[in-house]
């Protein structure tokens, strides 16, 4: 079985002690730092609703399934999506060995929204039409699903994606990363009062935030054993630094029908 949640990057940031990531390690997405290597987060993917239409981010959880946000899929649940894996910079085909696989979507039965704001169960699966061959593509690996009660308020977590670098700005061709901190839902309720926060985390940073295009990407917690877990899915944000953003919890949602993690899903 392929190990999940293992960063393959040998740079300074990926060899920091487990559970000891700080805001000094990675600074921003809105204003984000470029991820130094695709193998740092080898589970990161991006979606296209047509071969040339960038939609959202996501994360590979095993050889057949990608976890993303329901609002990235709904209401176009019956179309074919195109999932790109193993990429770092989608403006050039040469820096990594990226692959693109068609996929079908499954949105949570109880996904709810109000206007453009997801309010509950903002979680979806994409089933790849062909499984990832990990032997042929060793730089592509899945992320773990959570197996405990972390993160909790005060924990530092990591976000990454190709979203906008500023409010109303352009999306980034290169994958960016940032650290943020899990905080009380009070920091999110001002901008998103209708969200069911029993199923969402709120996280914020004075120097960074997710923005349009980062939706569906993972909120990553590095556990004490050094494995990265997808503990939340980027759901809603106003892109402004210092303001809270909402992330759909994966721990309980992945166990509930219909978006239950398939048996071959990995966790640690």
UniProtKB/TrEMBL annotation:
<keyword id="KW-1015">Disulfide bond</keyword>
<dbReference type="InterPro" id="IPR009003">
    <property type="entry name" value="Peptidase_S1_PA"/>
</dbReference>
<dbReference type="InterPro" id="IPR001314">
    <property type="entry name" value="Peptidase_S1A"/>
</dbReference>
<protein>
    <recommendedName>
        <fullName>Peptidase S1 domain-containing protein</fullName>
    </recommendedName>
</protein>
<dbReference type="InterPro" id="IPR018114">
    <property type="entry name" value="TRYPSIN_HIS"/>
</dbReference>
<feature type="domain" description="Peptidase S1">
    <location>
        <begin position="29"/>
        <end position="267"/>
    </location>
</feature>
<dbReference type="Pfam" id="PF00089">
    <property type="entry name" value="Trypsin"/>
</dbReference>
<dbReference type="InterPro" id="IPR033116">
    <property type="entry name" value="TRYPSIN_SER"/>
</dbReference>
<dbReference type="InterPro" id="IPR043504">
    <property type="entry name" value="Peptidase_S1_PA_chymotrypsin"/>
</dbReference>
<dbReference type="GO" id="GO:0006508">
    <property type="term" value="P:proteolysis"/>
</dbReference>
<keyword id="KW-0645">Protease</keyword>
<keyword id="KW-0378">Hydrolase</keyword>
<keyword id="KW-0720">Serine protease</keyword>
<dbReference type="InterPro" id="IPR001254">
    <property type="entry name" value="Trypsin_dom"/>
</dbReference>
<dbReference type="GO" id="GO:0004252">
    <property type="term" value="F:serine-type endopeptidase activity"/>
</dbReference>
<feature type="region of interest" description="Disordered">
    <location>
        <begin position="1"/>
        <end position="26"/>
    </location>
</feature>
């Amino acid at each position: 079985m392929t190990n999940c949640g293992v960063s393959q990057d040998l740079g300074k940031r990926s060899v920091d002690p487990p559970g000891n990531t700080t805001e000094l390690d990675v600074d921003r997405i809105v204003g984000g730092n470029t991820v130094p290597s695709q193998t740092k987060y080898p589970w990161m993917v991006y979606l296209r609703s047509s071969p040339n239409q960038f939609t959202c981010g996501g994360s590979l959880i095993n050889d057949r399934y990608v976890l993303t946000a329901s609002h990235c899929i709904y209401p176009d649940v019956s179309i074919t999506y195109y999932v790109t894996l193993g990429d770092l910079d989608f403006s050039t085909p040469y820096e990594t060995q990226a692959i693109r696989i068609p996929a079908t979507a499954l949105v949570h039965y109880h996904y709810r929204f109000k206007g453009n704001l997801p309010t509950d169960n903002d979680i979806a699966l994409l089933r790849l039409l062909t499984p990832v061959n990990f032997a042929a593509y060793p730089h592509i690996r899945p992320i773990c699903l959570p197996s405990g009660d972390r993160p909790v308020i005060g924990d530092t977590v990591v976000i990454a994606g190709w979203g906008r670098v500023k409010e109303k700005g352009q999306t980034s061709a290169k994958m960016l990363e940032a650290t943020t901190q899990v905080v009380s839902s009070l920091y999110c309720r001002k901008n998103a009062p209708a969200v069911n926060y029993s199923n969402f985390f709120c996280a914020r940073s004075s120097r960074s935030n997710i923005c349009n295009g980062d939706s569906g990407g993972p909120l990553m917690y590095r556990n004490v054993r050094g494995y990265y877990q997808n503990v939340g899915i980027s759901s809603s944000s106003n892109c402004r630094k210092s303001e809270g953003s909402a992330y759909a919890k994966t721990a309980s949602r992945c166990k509930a029908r219909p978006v239950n993690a398939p048996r071959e899903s990995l966790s640690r």
